[in-house]
Amino acid sequence: MSTGKPIPRFTVITLGVSDMRASIAFYEALGFARKFGETGEAVAFFDTGGTVIALFPWDQLARDATLPDQPRSKTFRGTTLAWNCNSVEEVDTVLDFAISCGASLLKSAHKTDYGGYSGYFGDPDNHPWEVVVAPGIEVCDDRRVHLPD
Protein backbone atom coordinates (compact mmCIF):
# COMPACT_ATOMS: atom_id res chain seq x y z
CA MET A 1 0.00 0.00 0.00
CA SER A 2 1.34 3.41 -0.99
CA THR A 3 1.76 6.03 1.70
CA GLY A 4 2.14 8.88 -0.81
CA LYS A 5 -0.49 11.43 -1.61
CA PRO A 6 -3.01 10.38 -4.26
CA ILE A 7 -2.79 12.18 -7.57
CA PRO A 8 -5.85 14.45 -7.90
CA ARG A 9 -8.00 14.00 -10.96
CA PHE A 10 -11.40 15.18 -12.06
CA THR A 11 -12.98 12.59 -14.32
CA VAL A 12 -16.79 12.65 -14.44
CA ILE A 13 -19.63 15.10 -13.90
CA THR A 14 -22.83 13.15 -13.18
CA LEU A 15 -26.09 15.00 -13.68
CA GLY A 16 -29.31 13.81 -12.12
CA VAL A 17 -32.02 13.95 -14.77
CA SER A 18 -35.78 13.45 -14.67
CA ASP A 19 -36.17 11.98 -18.18
CA MET A 20 -33.24 9.85 -19.36
CA ARG A 21 -34.48 9.54 -22.96
CA ALA A 22 -34.99 13.31 -23.38
CA SER A 23 -31.66 14.16 -21.75
CA ILE A 24 -29.74 11.60 -23.81
CA ALA A 25 -31.31 13.04 -26.99
CA PHE A 26 -30.43 16.59 -25.87
CA TYR A 27 -26.75 15.85 -25.20
CA GLU A 28 -26.47 13.88 -28.45
CA ALA A 29 -28.04 16.83 -30.31
CA LEU A 30 -25.41 19.12 -28.76
CA GLY A 31 -22.83 16.87 -30.41
CA PHE A 32 -21.35 15.06 -27.43
CA ALA A 33 -20.36 11.51 -28.42
CA ARG A 34 -22.14 8.88 -26.38
CA LYS A 35 -19.87 6.09 -25.16
CA PHE A 36 -20.55 2.73 -23.54
CA GLY A 37 -24.03 2.74 -25.11
CA GLU A 38 -24.87 -0.76 -23.96
CA THR A 39 -25.93 0.82 -20.65
CA GLY A 40 -29.16 1.84 -22.43
CA GLU A 41 -31.18 4.29 -20.37
CA ALA A 42 -29.84 3.10 -17.01
CA VAL A 43 -26.91 5.54 -17.26
CA ALA A 44 -25.44 7.48 -20.19
CA PHE A 45 -21.82 8.57 -20.68
CA PHE A 46 -20.65 11.31 -23.05
CA ASP A 47 -17.10 12.14 -24.08
CA THR A 48 -16.32 15.82 -23.57
CA GLY A 49 -12.70 15.78 -24.65
CA GLY A 50 -11.13 15.57 -21.21
CA THR A 51 -13.75 14.57 -18.70
CA VAL A 52 -17.04 12.72 -19.03
CA ILE A 53 -20.63 13.84 -18.56
CA ALA A 54 -22.78 11.07 -17.12
CA LEU A 55 -26.58 11.16 -16.94
CA PHE A 56 -28.33 9.17 -14.23
CA PRO A 57 -31.94 9.19 -13.02
CA TRP A 58 -32.31 12.01 -10.47
CA ASP A 59 -33.94 9.92 -7.73
CA GLN A 60 -31.41 7.09 -8.08
CA LEU A 61 -28.46 9.51 -7.99
CA ALA A 62 -29.84 11.14 -4.83
CA ARG A 63 -30.31 7.73 -3.23
CA ASP A 64 -26.76 6.72 -4.21
CA ALA A 65 -25.38 9.90 -2.61
CA THR A 66 -27.63 9.34 0.45
CA LEU A 67 -29.38 12.69 -0.07
CA PRO A 68 -33.11 13.43 -0.31
CA ASP A 69 -34.35 13.84 -3.87
CA GLN A 70 -37.32 16.01 -2.85
CA PRO A 71 -38.01 18.82 -3.08
CA ARG A 72 -36.32 19.33 -6.44
CA SER A 73 -35.25 22.89 -6.49
CA LYS A 74 -35.88 24.97 -9.62
CA THR A 75 -33.52 27.55 -8.16
CA PHE A 76 -29.75 27.75 -8.42
CA ARG A 77 -28.09 24.62 -7.01
CA GLY A 78 -24.58 26.04 -6.56
CA THR A 79 -23.03 24.48 -9.68
CA THR A 80 -22.64 25.48 -13.31
CA LEU A 81 -21.09 23.71 -16.27
CA ALA A 82 -19.05 25.67 -18.80
CA TRP A 83 -18.48 25.57 -22.54
CA ASN A 84 -15.43 27.73 -23.17
CA CYS A 85 -15.06 29.34 -26.59
CA ASN A 86 -12.35 31.24 -28.44
CA SER A 87 -14.42 34.20 -29.70
CA VAL A 88 -17.53 36.28 -29.10
CA GLU A 89 -18.96 34.90 -32.34
CA GLU A 90 -18.44 31.33 -31.14
CA VAL A 91 -20.29 32.11 -27.88
CA ASP A 92 -23.28 33.43 -29.87
CA THR A 93 -23.19 30.41 -32.20
CA VAL A 94 -23.08 27.91 -29.32
CA LEU A 95 -25.94 29.61 -27.46
CA ASP A 96 -28.10 29.68 -30.61
CA PHE A 97 -27.24 26.04 -31.30
CA ALA A 98 -28.07 24.91 -27.74
CA ILE A 99 -31.43 26.69 -27.93
CA SER A 100 -32.14 24.96 -31.26
CA CYS A 101 -31.44 21.62 -29.51
CA GLY A 102 -34.05 22.34 -26.84
CA ALA A 103 -32.09 24.28 -24.22
CA SER A 104 -33.69 27.24 -22.45
CA LEU A 105 -31.95 30.60 -22.55
CA LEU A 106 -31.15 31.57 -18.96
CA LYS A 107 -29.12 34.70 -19.71
CA SER A 108 -28.34 36.36 -23.02
CA ALA A 109 -24.69 36.75 -23.97
CA HIS A 110 -23.11 39.98 -22.77
CA LYS A 111 -19.74 41.60 -22.08
CA THR A 112 -18.47 40.67 -18.62
CA ASP A 113 -16.75 42.87 -16.06
CA TYR A 114 -13.53 40.81 -16.45
CA GLY A 115 -13.25 41.48 -20.19
CA GLY A 116 -14.95 38.33 -21.41
CA TYR A 117 -18.27 37.54 -23.06
CA SER A 118 -20.75 35.10 -21.58
CA GLY A 119 -24.32 33.79 -21.60
CA TYR A 120 -26.18 30.85 -20.04
CA PHE A 121 -28.48 28.08 -21.20
CA GLY A 122 -30.29 25.40 -19.21
CA ASP A 123 -30.45 21.73 -20.21
CA PRO A 124 -33.77 19.80 -19.95
CA ASP A 125 -33.41 19.66 -16.13
CA ASN A 126 -32.24 23.28 -16.01
CA HIS A 127 -28.63 22.43 -15.17
CA PRO A 128 -27.02 25.79 -16.06
CA TRP A 129 -24.32 25.94 -18.72
CA GLU A 130 -22.19 29.06 -19.13
CA VAL A 131 -20.99 29.65 -22.68
CA VAL A 132 -17.98 31.93 -22.38
CA VAL A 133 -14.87 33.42 -23.91
CA ALA A 134 -12.50 34.61 -21.19
CA PRO A 135 -9.21 36.48 -21.47
CA GLY A 136 -6.21 34.19 -21.04
CA ILE A 137 -8.17 30.95 -21.41
CA GLU A 138 -7.60 29.08 -24.64
CA VAL A 139 -9.49 26.12 -26.06
CA CYS A 140 -7.25 24.04 -28.32
CA ASP A 141 -8.10 21.63 -31.13
CA ASP A 142 -8.11 18.78 -28.59
CA ARG A 143 -11.17 20.50 -26.97
CA ARG A 144 -9.25 20.92 -23.73
CA VAL A 145 -8.97 24.22 -21.89
CA HIS A 146 -5.42 25.43 -21.46
CA LEU A 147 -4.78 27.85 -18.61
CA PRO A 148 -1.75 30.09 -18.21
CA ASP A 149 0.66 29.22 -15.38
UniProtKB/TrEMBL annotation:
Keyword Lyase in annotation: yes
Report which superkingdom the organism of origin falls in.
Bacteria
Gene3D superfamilies of this UniProt entry? Answer: 2,3-Dihydroxybiphenyl 1,2-Dioxygenase, domain 1 (3.10.180.10)
Q: Which CDD domains match?
A: VOC_like (cd07251)
Q: What is this protein called?
A: Lactoylglutathione lyase
Q: Where are the transmembrane segments?
A: none
Q: Which PROSITE patterns match?
A: VOC (PS51819)
- UniProt keyword annotations, A-Z: Lyase
Q: Which PANTHER family match?
A: BLR2520 PROTEIN
Please tell me whether the keyword Lyase is annotated for this protein. yes
The GO terms describing molecular function are: lyase activity
Occurrences of domain VOC (ranges): 9-134
**Short name of one Pfam family for this protein?**
Glyoxalase
